[in-house]
Specification:
CATH architecture of the largest domain: 3-Layer(aba) Sandwich
Number of strands: 16
Radius of gyration: 21 Å
Strand content: 15-25%
Structural class: alpha/beta
Largest sheet: 10 strands, mixed
Number of domains: 2
Oligomer: single chain
CATH superfamily of the largest domain: Alkaline Phosphatase, subunit A
CATH class of the largest domain: Alpha Beta
Strand order of the largest sheet: 7-6-5-4-8-1-9-10-2-11
């Protein structure tokens, strides 16, 4: 431990002694599964740019998202507060509580502090291009109110279901895109399903990527924090035809007709692979832009995903929601569960970090870690004083030391949706309860992840001490939340 701390101190001191402020580019995929990248074992979808990022940096094998779905995961990431303390703990639309807003999700409050606000206060240029989900334009959760000089993209997650929307937001300005937008959902029970039917004129992901590249070029003389919450591979699936045509026609024997929500597609497996391959291409373009701007060597680049791969559809179809086929791609790589679940498949996600000369290249780290850790980590990386009230712990010693670091602070998930779930990780043990918002709440389940990564064997018998630890932890760490209530038997009232 002393060696790690010494290395951490040397790395931080050498970085700031040079007088060169560290840039940060944080890339967030949307619903990307743990096994959907080549460097995590994917065999069918090429991801050369992300694999190169891993070869040049550090790949984590036990990294977790903040939540099993979009908005609360992003809340944990931005605020450094786990789901027991997070303001946003689900995907509720803002209009449910704030009828004055037509789109967007429950907003962060004025008092919520984000990592972007810390960077902006330190004199950094701050930009975000992609999907927000933490408050409508004009609310207290507006990206501009939460630390971003420039936001360009989807404010509302529901609008982001279409890749050809009517408009995107540039700060408070609604920028028109498609006179005839493509809806995010439609069923086609009969007839030939054609890609062209569901492709519009202006493809939003291209514009968001272009904006990110322009931001890098414009800010190359200044320190910057760039947050890129791209929307791939979240459904609907309607990537460009040229992207789909990269993949074998033999993959798809039946079309997807929208029976599991979102949009139909004639070649759903190829379309899903195309979305991930396109995402990989975006990473390549971002890295090229950093190199061209001459800032790649002092820019920390992080790549991860907001939760696991897309969840199951109705029982009468082989397709998951939106036409995704995780079994075909081995998307969870043996993990249990999908998006919406606190089992490993819903929250264990890829994570890669690259910083030449500081983060050892080509290394793999098995430190248990999660989204709450990024706020203190980025503070340490940039040399900022960490604010009070953060729930995570800094990964900077593990990143720069090249070795796993023992975890001190707990990891926990308190998730009121999808039946109501909690999970706690204590060392190698994972404890979870399901269906807490139903009439028949589930009992505690206990899994030894070191021996059973797939959570196939519930070893709850004889684990009274572990359960007591978990309940004591939850009593201490879970605060009430009127917007997202959850009763945990034996813990909350």
């Amino acid at each position: 431990m002393k060696t790690l701390l010494v290395l951490f101190a040397i790395a931080t001191a050498s970085l700031h002694a040079a007088g060169e402020k560290l840039n940060v580019v944080f890339i967030l995929a949307d619903d990307l599964g743990w096994g959907e990248l080549g460097c995590y074992g994917q065999k069918k979808i090429p991801t050369p740019n992300i694999d190169k990022l891993a070869a040049q940096g550090m790949r984590f094998t036990q990294h977790y998202s903040g939540a099993p779905v979009c908005a609360p995961s992003r809340c944990v990431l931005m605020t450094g507060r786990h789901l027991g303390h997070a303001e946003v703990r689900g995907n509720m639309q803002a209009k449910v509580k704030f009828p004055q807003f037509k789109e967007g999700q429950i907003p962060l409050t004025e008092s919520a502090l984000t990592i972007a606000q810390v960077f902006r206060k330190a004199g950094y240029a701050t930009g975000a291009m992609g999907k927000w989900g933490l408050g409508p334009v004009g609310s207290t959760g507006d990206p501009a109110a939460k630390g971003f000089d420039l936001f360009f993209g989807y404010n509302c997650q529901a609008v982001a279901h279409s890749f050809y929307p009517a408009s995107l937001w540039r700060n408070s300005e609604q920028v028109p895109l498609n006179a005839k937008p493509i809806p995010g959902a439609k069923k086609q029970p009969d007839g030939e399903v054609k890609m062209e039917t569901y492709i519009g004129e202006v493809y939003a992901p291209k514009l968001m990527l272009d904006e990110a590249l322009k931001f890098i070029d414009a800010q190359k003389e200044n320190p910057f924090f760039l947050y890129l919450p791209f929307i791939e591979p979240h459904v609907s699936m309607h990537p460009p035809v040229s992207s789909v045509d990269r993949f074998p026609k033999e993959w798809d024997d039946v079309p997807y007709r929208g029976e599991s929500a979102y949009l139909p597609h004639p070649r759903p497996r190829a379309a899903y692979a195309a979305m991930i391959a396109d995402l990989d291409g975006y990473v390549g373009r971002v890295m090229e832009a950093l190199e061209k701007a001459g800032v790649a060597e002092h820019t920390l680049v992080v790549f991860t995903s907001d939760n696991g791969t897309t969840h199951e559809g109705p029982p009468n179809t082989k397709f998951h929601i939106g036409g995704v086929d995780p079994a075909f791609f081995n998307s969870t790589a043996g993990l249990r569960g999908f998006k919406g679940s606190v089992y490993e498949g819903g929250i264990r996600v890829p994570m890669i970090a690259r910083l030449p000369g500081k983060i050892p290249a080509g290394t793999v780290n098995n430190s248990p870690s999660y989204f709450a850790d990024w706020f203190p980590t980025l503070c340490d990386a940039a040399g900022f004083e960490k604010p009070d009230g953060l729930d995570g712990e800094s990964l900077w010693p593990a990143l720069t030391g090249g070795k796993a670091a023992p975890r001190v602070k707990p990891m926990l998930w308190v998730y009121p949706e999808y039946g109501g779930q909690v999970a706690v990780r204590l060392g190698d043990y994972k404890l979870t309860r399901q269906k807490l918002n139903t009439k028949t709440p589930g009992a505690w389940e206990v899994y030894d992840l070191a021996a059973d990564i797939g959570e196939t064997k519930n070893i709850v018998a004889g684990q009274a001490d572990l359960i007591q630890q978990a309940e004591e932890l939850l009593r201490r760490e879970v605060s009430p939340n009127a917007n997202f209530p959850l009763t945990i038997p034996g813990v909350t009232n």
